[in-house]
Design a protein that fits this description.
Blueprint (H helix, E strand, L loop, with lengths): L4 H13 L3 H8 L4 H12 L6 E5 L5 H9 L4 E6 L2 H12 L7 E6 L12 E7 L8 H11 E12 L5 H23 L2 H12 L4 H10 L3 E8 L4 E7 L1
Parallel strand pairs: 1-2, 1-4, 2-3, 4-5
Antiparallel strand pairs: 5-7, 6-7
The structure holds S-adenosylmethionine.
Length: 235
């Protein structure tokens, strides 16, 4: 399934940190990531008729937030790291799906094993910056959506206000590898995560890529002064 060295490395990192991933998120963001998840669910605003595909769904945060706030008919929770999905399965067993039909499947975002127009919504949180070929993953998301279907993306972003950007840059550079190293014993994995956030293009570039990948009505909203952004786009 993993075709290139970058993907193999990403998969190895998430396989190593899967068991501590949720704790790392909570601590490293001082809990703020929960408000970004809520913003993502509000942007998704699923209805009971929606069939959702969550790409790079990891341990299931987005899927379970949707199930809690705006339950759709079904959610296909996918990721290419089995250890992350194993945690998601345990959370489902503990009741996190809240009665929503959540299927869990090992899937590479670059080759979605679904026929065209299978879903009314695709979600992807913190996945884009890890993909080997971001626009290919965007085109795959467009392909499996019905016409009029929506793509909702949460990703780290570039704060527009320079002093905030500098402060955040310092935190990212020093604290993320430190917290990750202490919690997960994998400092180099968190140096990769830091670099993937630093190297990720600004919001307008992502909007252009979405348009070129087959989406219209592309927009975004910054979270916490632009540390993250929620993008919405329509096929
Ligand atoms: C930072 S985690 C985000 C997980 C989850 N969406 C969340 O909000 O917590 C990134 C996830 O992307 C997955 N991933 C990276 N590249 C992928 C790919 N090509 N196909 C599928 N999943 C991928 C990793 O396995 C990891 O679980």
């Amino acid at each position: 399934m993993v075709a290139d060295a970058h993907a193999a490395r990403v998969r190895q990192i998430f396989s190593n940190i899967a068991r501590r991933y949720d704790l790392f998120n909570a601590l490293s963001s001082f809990g703020i990531y929960r408000s970004w998840l809520a913003r993502t669910a509000r942007a998704a605003a699923c209805t009971p008729a929606d069939r959702v595909l969550d790409v790079a769904g990891g341990t299931g945060d987005v899927a379970f937030e949707l199930a809690r706030r705006c339950p759709p008919a079904s959610i296909e929770l996918t990721d290419f790291t089995p250890e992350m999905l194993e945690v998601a399965r345990e959370r489902i067993a503990a009741g996190a799906a809240r009665g929503v039909d959540v299927g869990v499947r090992e899937v590479d975002a670059h080759n979605l094993p679904y026929t065209d127009g299978s879903f009314t919504m695709v979600t992807c949180a913190y996945g884009l910056r890890n993909f080997s070929d971001r626009t290919r993953a965007m085109r795959e998301a467009a392909r499996v959506l019905v016409p009029g279907g929506r793509y909702v993306v949460l990703e780290f972003a570039t704060p527009p206000w320079a002093p905030w950007r500098a402060l955040y840059g310092w935190y990212l550079g020093h604290m993320i590898p430190l917290i990750g190293g202490v919690l997960c014993g994998d400092r180099s994995g968190f140096e990769y995560l830091r670099d993937s956030i630093r190297g990720f293009p600004p919001q307008e570039v992502i909007c252009d890529e979405l348009r070129r990948s087959g989406f219209s009505a592309v927009s975004y909203r910054n979270c916490t002064g632009g540390i993250a952004a929620v993008y919405t786009a329509v096929k």
